Amino acid sequence: MQTLKRRLAPAKRRPASAGLAGKRRSRKRLARPKISGRRILVAVVAVFLLFSVGRSVLPALGIETPGLPSFGGGGDTPTDAPTTKAPKAPTVDLNGVMVPGGGEPMITLNPGLVRLGGTVTVNGSGFDQGSVVEVYLGPSATAAQPSGKSKPSKAAAGKPVMVGTAKAGKYGIFTLNFPFPTKMTTPVLEVTAQARGSDKVAKADAAVAQGAGQAALSAVVGKPGDVINLTVKGFSPGEELQVFWGRINGDPALTLKADEDGSVGKTPIKVGVTAVGTTSLVVVGKTSGAAASAPFQVLRLYPSIKLAPYAVKATQSITFSGAGFAPGERVLVRLNAAGGQPVMAVTTDGAGGFKGAGLTMPYQLKGAQSLVFIGEQSRAATSTGFTILPYTPQARTNAYGGLPGTVVNFYATQFAPNEAVHVYAKTSKGAKGDLVSAFRVDKKGTARAVGQYTIPGNTENSVIFELRGQLSGSTATVNFKVDSSGGPVDIPTPKPYVLPKDLEK
């Protein structure tokens, strides 16, 4: 009963201050609600969804997020994505070959035979409208793996690389362009297009063009011997490269070696000898057989010759120097003709010139002459003229005149060096002279008080002495006046002169 009375009894009125304090305590309890396990689960799911959106949607829009791997279209950054899926197995037997039955995703590549560093277009169809298609580049399952010790490129290292994303259009069609790698060690790569979050996938092989290297020159015009820079790529790693000018056989102009990427950086080379006009520099891989060429305009050579002196006598030498020929070639020297047997050959230096060459002139040459210079490889030609001067000797006797019986000897100058001089005597002009003496001049063409001849007793008026050089063919004449003796002179008739063999020439 007492308990019931308490419940039915009216409550006591609380002071106003006590009511306000209670409300405040109640509000505090509402401001700090207890965190339940359900709320924690909801928060974790929200964070997961946000992270997933950041990984998938933002890269497709071209937006990179900090802390996430980049899959942008260069083809050189490896992805952490799982291995790409394989297309569904063929389902239809057509002419004995299992082929897809239709409606499956498909991609084609343009071009299918790819040049390193070129652009490849991927055309896809059969995907879901609006789906995001990821395109990967990786080793082909059917392509042979690279051999040797060369370091493979990232795209050929065994893990596909994302090269771009595209959105399938109204009919499930998309188009994507991506740059093909510039460094490859496998001849075939595989392109995979896979719809994100779907089993739609298609593959196609991209074959790297073999035998089609690339060569570039720093200049396209020059003459043989000019220095230009050559850059080469697209060959087998470490192979020997032969460089030709205007041809692809014979001995190469030079030999280079490709690096581990099949390339050669800027390398100074000399323009080789080839036909004037438009030609090509050709690079051939000795191992792969790959070839590359670059056009080049070869300018004409203008050789020149400096000769000294321009006038000489027999036994004297002329010297000459040349410039403007091809570097390292032989220059053939001919006399008075552009063909026939050359009289000598000189080799040019690295600048296409030469110095210090010379020729000694023989006695048989007389008057104006020409030397013709022709480059053996370049065929560049020039000529220059010179003159062979005659010898003009002078002679005199030990006396200008005398009576019959006078013994005469001779002085001579300006004959050819070391030649034999024969002395002929005649008593009248036009008469045939008789050989009466001989001597040899020294290396300067001079002789003093040489030879001997006695004026006969029956000689009247004068004796004409003719001195003939036997090598030079030159002649000096001396008139010896014979005074009148006033009567017969008893002088024995001289015996005929016998020429010594050592004075024949």
TrEMBL record:
Stretches for region Disordered: 1-29, 67-92
Extent of Low complexity compositional bias: 77-91
Protein origin, superkingdom: Bacteria
Compositional bias segments (type: Basic residues): 1-15
Name of this chain's protein: Uncharacterized protein
Protein source organism: Dactylosporangium siamense
Lineage: Bacteria, Bacillati, Actinomycetota, Actinomycetes, Micromonosporales
